[in-house]
């Protein structure tokens, strides 16, 4: 089941910063040719320059993946210009930290559009080629998909959709050589926690990991074939404890959120 990324073509979405940029470099260092995409052309160019030091054939595309009508054409362009995709990393995403009473349907749908629908469309468009090449699909989900965190209803729902899609896809592709992986970061120090139009989060109770900490765990998942992985790993036990006693866990989360809010005021 070990998967060597050397010589493979890897597409990483949302690679202009944070986890996507770190993964793009990580794949390039290990000998993959990497395609990267995002909306901010200047930031993408900086990442591409670093990636090309290791993998000169790598390239970038500036695209807004929430424009769903363009995703299939983009997939075809990447397949053409990268000469096929072996590994797709669906990483592009946005946060939404907003109390459910202040959420609007439009906000929920915007989060779902980039965090789930665009990844779903890109996956379906690239899947025939990935099946043919016995490739890998890596979906960057979140611990939020599993835990019911405060003020993250819109975000957690979008990630839960991505996680469920991934698990079912892994089952459906059982007769192929394709591997499917769901990565659930906990708190990784990225710009995601500083974007405007978000309420004050509850993440400060968890020590943030530096962004490079995500690279080895993801590459190890490709090697071991593990379908789901948490970074940091101790979130595996937190999630297991939730599923053993969901009522107790949600009661604990409510108490934690109330205490944290009182401490702020
Ligand atoms: N950091 C964490 O602790 C954490 C925890 C759980 C899950 N995650 C997930 O990890 C992924 C990466 O996030 P990050 O923490 O690395 O934050 P980040 O630095 O803000 O990265 C998000 C990336 O997604 C891109 N993106 C956002 N909207 C896009 C759009 N409409 N079209 C194309 N690209 C778009 C951004 O680029 P542009 O703005 O240039 O388009 C950026 O490259 C996200 O899916 C996030 O939900 C992160």
Structure description:
49% of the residues lie in helices and 13% in strands. The protein has 265 residues and is of the alpha/beta class. It has a seven-stranded parallel β-sheet, with helices on both faces. The protein is globular, with a radius of gyration of 18 Å. The model has no long low-confidence stretch (mean pLDDT 97). NADP nicotinamide-adenine-dinucleotide phosphate binds next to helix 1.
For the secondary structure, the number of strands is 7
Q: How many helices in DSSP terms?
A: 9
Give the helix proportion (percent range): 40-55%
Shape: globular
Which small compounds were modeled alongside the protein?
Answer: NADP nicotinamide-adenine-dinucleotide phosphate
Give short descriptive properties of this protein.
265 residues, alpha/beta, 7-stranded parallel beta sheet, 9 helices, binds NADP nicotinamide-adenine-dinucleotide phosphate
Describe the secondary-structure layout.
Blueprint lengths: L8 E5 L4 H12 L3 E6 L2 H14 L4 E4 L8 H12 L4 E4 L14 H29 L2 E5 L3 H4 L5 H20 L6 E7 L29 H10 L3 E4 L3 H10 L1 H19 L1
Parallel strand pairs: 1-2, 1-4, 2-3, 4-5, 5-6, 6-7
The structure holds NADP nicotinamide-adenine-dinucleotide phosphate (NAP).
Question: What's the short story on this structure?
Answer:
With 265 residues, this protein is an alpha/beta fold. It has helices spanning 18-29, 41-54, 71-82, 105-133, 144-147, 153-172, 215-224, 235-244, 246-264, and strands at 9-13, 33-38, 59-62, 87-90, 136-140, 179-185, 228-231.
């Amino acid at each position: 089941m070990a998967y060597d990324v050397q010589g493979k073509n890897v597409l990483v979405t949302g690679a202009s910063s944070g986890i996507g940029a770190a993964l793009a470099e990580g794949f390039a260092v290990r000998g993959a040719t990497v395609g990267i995409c995002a909306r901010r052309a200047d930031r993408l160019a900086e990442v591409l320059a670093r990636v090309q030091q290791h993998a000169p054939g790598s390239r970038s595309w500036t695209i807004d993946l929430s424009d769903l009508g363009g995703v299939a054409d983009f997939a075809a362009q990447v397949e053409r210009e990268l000469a096929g995709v072996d590994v797709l990393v669906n990483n592009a995403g946005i946060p939404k930290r907003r109390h459910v009473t202040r959420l609007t349907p439009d906000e929920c749908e915007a989060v779902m559009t980039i965090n789930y629908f665009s990844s779903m469309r890109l996956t379906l468009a690239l899947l025939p080629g990935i099946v043919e090449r016995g490739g890998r699909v890596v979906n960057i989900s979140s611990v939020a998909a599993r835990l019911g965190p405060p003020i993250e209803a819109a975000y957690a729902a979008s990630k839960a959709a991505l996680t469920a899609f991934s698990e079912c896809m892994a089952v459906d592709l059982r007769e192929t050589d394709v591997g499917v992986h769901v990565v659930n970061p906990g708190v990784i120090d990225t710009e995601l926690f500083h974007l405007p139009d978000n309420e004050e989060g509850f993440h400060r109770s968890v020590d943030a990991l530096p962004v490079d900490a995500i690279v080895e765990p993801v590459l190890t998942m490709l090697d071991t074939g593990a379908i789901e992985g948490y970074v940091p790993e101790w979130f595996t036990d937190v999630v297991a404890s939730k599923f053993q006693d969901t009522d107790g866990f949600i009661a604990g989360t409510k108490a934690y959120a109330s205490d944290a809010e009182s401490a702020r005021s």
